[in-house]
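Subject: Sanity check before I submit

Could someone independently write out the structure tokens for this chain? I want to compare against mine line by line before I put it in a report. The sequence has 296 residues.
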Amino acid sequence: MQPFSITLFATTGDPEAIRHVDKSNWSGYGVVFTKELVGSLKQEPGIAQAGIYILVGNAAEETIYIGEADPVGDRLKNHVTNKEGWVWGVYFFDRNHKIGKTEVQYLESALLALAKKYDRAILLNKNTPTEPTMSPAAKATAQAFLTDMLLILPMLGINAFTPPKIKDVTEQVQPVGSESGSFDTIVIPAREDGFKEEFLKQNRWFAVRINARQIPKLKYIAAYQVAPIAAITHIAEIESIVPYNDTGKYMINMKRAATVIKPIPRTDSSEINMQSSRYALRDKLLAAKSLDEVWV
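---
Independent answer below. Compare away.
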């Protein structure tokens, strides 16, 4: 694999606003945007060309929608009002105009296939497009374009199209603290979309890294809703913990809908990090008035 450079240019000086993505030795170009700023894309490069785009939301791991359009700008404008579950996105086009309608259709089908293969994201796509009929030269052009896209996307925080790196999972879940190490509950951090769609509606949670040796100990799952709520608010009895495809992670299924509990908040002075799951004791959790009292 050859070294390469990525340039990320904040067009307005705001690192969370519209940004341009440029890769060395590539005729492709990307534009990153938020849902609120789609109306401002009309002056951005490539907006009137054929393009491939990915819309990203917040869920258990990652929620994505993959699409293509010619021109790409009209479709993105339509998605602001007609597509829920996303907060930001990125579109790619070719500055040499070698990526047209057929090529972006190929890119869409290829990205969907990769996302399903690795299963690292929740796909919002309801349909599965077939690979278009194209000449060998056009397909080679599209495949080369895709190769460069796959190098860029993880650097933007989109990991749905790359295989997971299987690591030693013995320390993937933070321990109970300085106690004896006994626990019966796993507390998972949840963003709003994933919490509503998966934890509450589907009575499950994925994808969680757990040491397989610890699975027999786990009887309950509790949900910590991230900021602005920043509190443990629900708990449920676990029915089963099963491998989540070939990701090296697990899906946790609940016996029944989660029970609402008195919120256990993370105080402003707390040193508890809830960026990843933590083991806990159910009785101690239910008696706690703050996260610190769960893990003292």
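---
OP: Matches mine. For the report I'm noting this point. The chain has six helices and 14 strands.
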